[in-house]
Write a structure and sequence with these properties.
Elements: E1 4-12, H1 16-24, H2 26-32, E2 36-39, E3 47-50, E4 67-71, E5 75-82, E6 85-96, E7 99-111, H3 120-139, E8 157-163, H4 167-175, H5 177-184, E9 188-190, E10 197-200, E11 203-206, E12 209-212, E13 216-222, E14 226-231, E15 243-252, E16 255-263, H6 274-289
Antiparallel strand pairs: 1-7, 2-3, 4-5, 5-6, 6-7, 8-16, 9-10, 10-13, 11-12, 13-14, 14-15, 15-16
Helix pairs in contact: 4-5, 4-6, 5-6
């Protein structure tokens, strides 16, 4: 079995000392990272985290993580055994050169021997995408955090928003290609019937090759009330079963309550950064439904 190394970079809206605290204070870790945490802030000290929100360590007995590097406000590294494989997570923290009030965090999660599971590389990538969304929300004040239960039998993303516009206006934002392009940021095509295409014309790169996203299929459609579509694996892996995204619209006063459910994940870690992306897109659907002008989304928000 070959080694596995995953590298990532986070930009966080706080100075290095604040970010270091979020990464090393047990009470903070239990707010964005794990159900339970115990930290001995020194080289060789315990860096234990466990519970239902921890991938690979649901019980306290499995929480054997220890600190392998400790430099206050600059760096922290710790061991983490996942799927019977030892690994190390290492963070370095620097002031963002473009913003003295923010930080750039560089992370490396390395395995001498990769976990013997399906899509191990994708598992680690999705895990840290999710953690980035949660620590970002935590540092920004807490709104928008989501703690995934990694043991859940039916993992899903469930979000709710009130939109000050009637259901008919909200429904149009979901089936009108021009309006979809406004909130999602790419050209779209829609055949509004069960079995029809709901197509975001995205291009992405995988393994150095450019690919075009396949069309989603409309699974359910009830005018001004409900839209459900298939959602293929965002990496283009055809071996992964399609997920499902459903918008449920209900009148609420003069406006609309929108419930979004993204389900059908093979494993909870596949939830990745969807909670944070969908929350952001719901805010844009809100604006478009109310007829507000919005800027095109940056590339990182286009799935």
């Amino acid at each position: 079995m070959s080694a596995l190394t995953h590298e990532f970079t986070w930009k966080l809206p706080a100075r290095p000392a604040r970010v270091f605290a979020a990464l090393t204070d047990a009470s903070e870790l239990s707010q964005w990272f794990a159900e339970y945490a115990e930290v001995e802030p020194q080289l060789g000290g315990a860096y234990r985290f466990w519970g239902k929100h921890t991938y690979g360590a649901p019980s306290k007995a499995e929480a054997t993580q220890r600190i392998t590097k400790f430099a206050p406000s600059q760096a922290i590294a710790y061991s983490w055994r996942i799927h019977d494989r030892d690994s190390e997570v290492a963070f370095t923290i620097e002031t963002d050169p473009e913003n003295a009030e923010a930080s750039v965090v560089k992370g490396v999660h390395s395995f001498t021997e990769a976990p013997s599971i399906n899509r191990a590389k994708e598992m680690i990538d999705d895990l840290w995408r999710f953690n980035w969304g949660n620590i970002s929300a935590h540092i920004a004040g807490g709104q928008g955090k989501l703690m995934v239960d990694y043991g859940a039998a039916d993992p899903n993303v469930t979000l709710s928003i009130f939109i000050d516009a009637p259901p008919s206006a909200v429904f149009r934002t979901l089936i009108d290609p021009e309006k979809i392009q406004q909130w999602f940021g790419v050209a779209a095509a829609v055949d509004p019937r069960v079995g029809g295409d709901w197509h975001l014309k995205m291009e992405f790169e995988k393994d150095g090759k450019k690919q075009t996203a396949p069309a989603m299929k409309i699974l359910e459609i009830e005018e001004n009330k409900r839209l459900s579509i298939s959602w293929p694996d965002w990496r283009g892996d055809k071996s992964v079963p399609d997920q499902r995204v459903t918008w449920q619209l209900s009148p609420e006063g003069a406006g609309t309550r929108v419930e979004l459910v993204h389900d059908g994940f093979v494993r909870a870690v596949d939830i990745s950064d969807y909670p944070f992306g969908w929350r952001w897109f719901l805010s844009r659907i809100d604006a478009v439904a109310q007829g507000k002008r919005i800027e095109a989304p940056p590339a990182e928000h286009q799935c």
